[in-house]
Design goal:
Elements lengths: L1 E3 L8 E7 L8 H9 L7 H5 L33 E8 L9 E3 L2 E6 L3 E6 L5 E6 L6 H5 L10 E3 L2 E6 L3 E6 L5 E6 L8 E2 L5 E3 L2 E4 L2 E2 L9 E5 L6 E6 L49
Antiparallel strand pairs: 1-7, 2-3, 4-5, 5-6, 6-7, 8-9, 9-10, 10-11, 12-15, 13-14, 14-16, 16-17
Length: about 280
């Protein structure tokens, strides 16, 4: 695994920031934190009640609304937006949403690349390129480029990878802090097109369970975001005799498939529940 300070010149996707004339590029709180180089670790309380100045997860809030309360840009002035900087991202299928915190954008790129970008200038602070084995795309059966989201907790950026690991990066340097294997991708090739969310101090992640991966790969996991230790693993396909087995109409356990949890989950802190959409089961 490597951390680099440059972006490939062959990158095809651009990150673009727009600004209204007369407005600050980032809120004063974010500017102050960036200028003082005093990174404030992200807590569960911050994630469950995020500042309007920050975008700390995929859809900003744990309920997945994707709504910003900021009101400087409205229907009357949106036409005055001007581009202030743009930079290339890694090549591939781009579905990523950046996190915004303390004057920095943390951007998930295609093909297991994560970047930290100065939100004011667009300058690259650090870039992490994971060394993915050459046979991953073939073993997974394709569709291994995209990554929708990453998570931030404490002083770590946390993501899942298509070589079937969950890992954390130091938020200041981009260096690998820890990694934990979820599956041997040669045995159970479970694809990760989304990263985790943080729910009450746990990194919750789902995955796409392909037919060749077997029913055991259809799982949702919780890891300790500070150490990477696996805390629990919940199977989405019941074994014979378990609750829900009767819904499979007698399909042999080994042939049950496709109950993937590949979309980013949400979290209800009051109920302590993680709602997660699942792909319909197969064969169908």
């Amino acid at each position: 695994m490597s951390v680099q300070r440059v972006v490939s010149p062959s990158a095809l996707v651009l990150a673009t920031v727009l600004l209204l004339p007369g407005l600050d590029a980032v809120p004063a709180v974010a500017q102050s934190a960036a200028q003082n180089d005093g990174f404030v670790p992200v807590t569960d309380a911050m994630l469950q009640n995020p500042s309007p100045d920050d975008w700390l997860m995929w859809r900003r809030t744990l309920n997945g609304w994707g709504y910003s309360p900021l009101d400087q840009i409205d229907r009357d002035n949106v036409g005055e937006l001007q581009m202030v900087w743009t930079r290339a991202l890694a090549s591939g299928a781009q579905e990523g949403t950046p996190l915004a915190y303390g004057g920095t954008l943390y951007m998930p790129n295609p093909n297991e690349v994560v970047q930290a970008i100065d939100a004011v200038t667009g300058d690259l602070k650090w870039e992490y390129r994971r060394d993915i084995p050459d046979d991953v795309a073939e073993v997974m059966g394709g569709l291994t480029e995209n990554n929708r989201n990453i998570a931030i907790y404490g002083s770590y950026i946390i993501d899942t990878s298509n070589d079937d690991y969950i890992y954390a990066l130091d938020v200041n340097t981009g260096e690998l802090a820890w990694e934990e294997q979820i599956f041997d991708y040669h045995v159970h090739p479970a694809r990760h097109s989304s990263g985790p969310i943080i729910a009450n101090g746990k990194a919750i992640s789902g995955r796409s369970c392909r037919p060749r991966a077997g029913p055991v790969s259809c799982v949702i996991l919780a890891h300790d975001p500070r150490t990477g230790k696996e805390l629990w693993r919940t199977r989405l396909i019941p074994r014979p005799g378990e609750p829900g087995d009767e819904t499979w109409g007698g399909v042999p356990y080994e042939e049950r498939m496709h109950v993937g949890s590949w979309m980013v989950p949400s979290f209800d802190p009051e109920l302590n529940l993680v709602p997660d959409a699942r792909h319909p089961g197969g064969p169908s």
